[in-house]
Amino acid sequence: PSLDTATCAMSVRSFNEKAAALNGVVIANVSADLPFAQKRFCGAEGIENAVTLSTFRSSFADDFGLRIMDGPLAGLCARAVVVLDGEPALEILAA
Length: 95
Fold this sequence. Notes:
The chain is of the alpha+beta class. 39% of the residues lie in helices and 11% in strands. The protein contains four helices and two strands, in the order H-E-H-E-H-H. It has helices at residues 6-20, 35-45, 60-63, 88-94, and strands at residues 27-31, 50-54. The protein is globular.
């Protein structure tokens, strides 16, 4: 749900590390954080090779079936790894 949670921060660091060694791989970290908070996090963590995208005012959670429907995190995205292939992938995420 947020890059400022320990689990999300750890996964972003880990995926960024692993992706740095792979050619042609783009990691897109999607969180409920606003873009300025994502930029702050990546800057503080030295994360340069990852794209950050915000679910704020988007249908991402519904489009990918990740919206938590009830409980204290209702409305946020469940944690997930989504693997997309090719150029259309970034177009889908950016929409």
